[in-house]
Amino acid sequence: MQKKIISYSVLFVGIIFLSVFFGYSYGDLIISFLRENQETKKELSMSKTSSSKENFRVSLYFGSSENNLLKKYSTSILKTKNEIELIENIIKLLIKGPSRNGFVPTIPKKTKLRSVFKGENDILYLDFNRSLSENHIGGAWSELITLNSLVYSISKNIKEKFRRIVLLIEGQEALTLNGSISILGSLSMKKDLVSEREIINLDIKNSSERSIREDLYQRKKISPAGLPNSSFEKKMEEKEEINPVGIPVKKP
Amino acid sequence: MKLNSKRKFFTISFVVLSISYIFSCNLTFAINYNNSLENKNSNNSKSYVVVIDPAHGGRDSGSKGKNINEKDISLKVAKLLKNKISKYKKIKVFLTRGTDKELTNSQRTGIANYNYADLFLSIHADASWRIGDRGPSVFVSSPQRPARLKGESQIAISYRWERGQNVHLVKSIRFAKRLLKQFDRVDKRKKTEFHILPLKILEGARMPAIYISMGVISSPEDEARLSEINIKNLYIESIVAEVLSFFGIS
């Protein structure tokens, strides 16, 4: 009996000693092997997401601070799997508002998009919470600007053509947005509501010539037509670093 | 002898025809003159009905300025207009609401239709997304073409509520454009805006109907002007003058 106890205890101590010994000497290798596996898995997943995280150029339509019309606001957002997600992202950007001067928001800030879905007969439904009507500033022209901001921003960016766009508030069709403009049925696009001048707002820079030109424009170094604005460009032109329309010249 | 008888016949017939022609001309002239006299007499005795709609009301306060709301301004302006226009005995003025009461768009237009109004004015004070925007504006409803329902006949469509204003759009636009000229004379710094929009408040009105925004309540300048508005205000006088000229009253 005593021999058995001694043998079992020796065996137990031996196992512990061996595990400590091997863990101390080969533990790093094992851990590094496991980590490599994890990293490869991560890399695989990252590669998938990075391909879907490509940027997509969209044109939003905010109010203009110079007149009572809409103005085109170019920006870039992450590429999405389908057009419904793209519409959701566009509307969220509209609610967030513009980040540059010269533009005015067109949707009340506390507004939330409840859902976007496509119904029968190619009808697109946009369901907002009641803040869109309750917190709206009011007025016939302001309501028109809000509605056309939505319609223009969606129709100019979405390839799929919807027959109608219907606005819902808390899941129900509403007669008006805030008492003036009729929205029952479908939203219509009012022509001649967009002012012509476009201001570019790039969130992501890359090394292409176009982005350099646009960057120069944003720093007010060149006019929208690309002509030099100041002596800085004239010097650049003299040094033959940019051509008359502001595009950098490739040196041999 | 034969020649003489023929000559006589022709001369007599010529005289008879000319006399009858002159007589018929005089008769038609007399009839037209009498008709015009009758019209004038009927115009003199006819009274006109104007319905003025102060926008919003009750829980619906409309656009908001720092110190005032659209519903209060519109009620104040409507009452001033009523006081001024009612002095002319030929015009009866009704308000869609005389107190802080909530009404739907169709109720407002329904009041105008029920009273067989000759003119419908909807008074507002809009707001703007743009800072610095100010001044009054005038709007008119766009023609409505509601979708045809299953089994609905062409005649039935023509009686739809939404199409009520379609027939009166020409007169509405004429009134609105003349009012614009009056407003532009008051403030030459800024041209009054005029647009044709799908306005729910005006679409069912079966008479000339105009949406008048007295100013941009979100602008401090307009808010101050609207809060101090009184019966001598030039915009109110312009509206009254245009209403009178619309009905041919001097």
Topology:
The complex is a heterodimer of chains A (252) and B (250).
Chain A: H1 2-52, E1 55-64, E2 70-78, H2 83-96, E3 103-104, E4 113-118, E5 123-128, H3 131-134, H4 140-155, E6 164-169, E7 172-173, E8 194-200, H5 209-218, H6 231-238
Parallel strand pairs in A: 2-8, 5-6
Antiparallel strand pairs in A: 1-2, 1-3, 4-5, 6-7
Helix pairs in contact in A: 2-4
Chain B: H1 2-45, E1 48-54, H2 70-85, E2 91-95, H3 105-114, E3 119-124, E4 137-141, H4 154-158, H5 169-186, E5 193-197, H6 200-203, E6 209-213, H7 220-227, H8 234-246
Parallel strand pairs in B: 1-2, 1-3, 3-6, 4-5
Antiparallel strand pairs in B: 4-6
Helix pairs in contact in B: 2-8, 5-8
Task: Please summarize what this structure is.
Chain A is of the alpha/beta class. Chain A is built from 6 helices and 8 strands, in the order H-E-E-H-E-E-E-H-H-E-E-E-H-H.
What can be said about the biggest beta sheet of chain B?
6 strands, mixed
**What's the CATH H-level superfamily name of the largest domain in chain B?**
Zn-dependent exopeptidases
Distance between the termini of chain A: 93 Å
Q: How many strands of chain B?
A: 6
Shape of chain B: elongated
Shape of chain A: elongated
Going by CATH, the architecture of the largest domain in chain B would be 3-Layer(aba) Sandwich
Per DSSP E runs of 2 or more residues, the count of β-strands of chain A stands at 8
Order of strands, widest sheet of chain B: 2-1-3-6-4-5
Number of helices of chain A: 6
Major sheet: arrangement of strands of chain A: 3-1-2-8
How many structural domains are formed by the residues of chain A?
3
Share of helix of chain A, binned: 40-55%
Reading the helices and strands of chain B in chain order gives HEHEHEEHHEHEHH
Strand content of chain A: 15-25%
Structural class of chain B: alpha/beta
Beta-strand percent range of chain B: 5-15%
Q: CATH fold name of the largest domain in chain B, please?
A: Aminopeptidase
Helix-and-strand structural type of chain A: alpha/beta
The N- to C-terminal Cα distance of chain B equals 70 Å
**Regarding CATH, which class of the largest domain in chain B?**
Alpha Beta
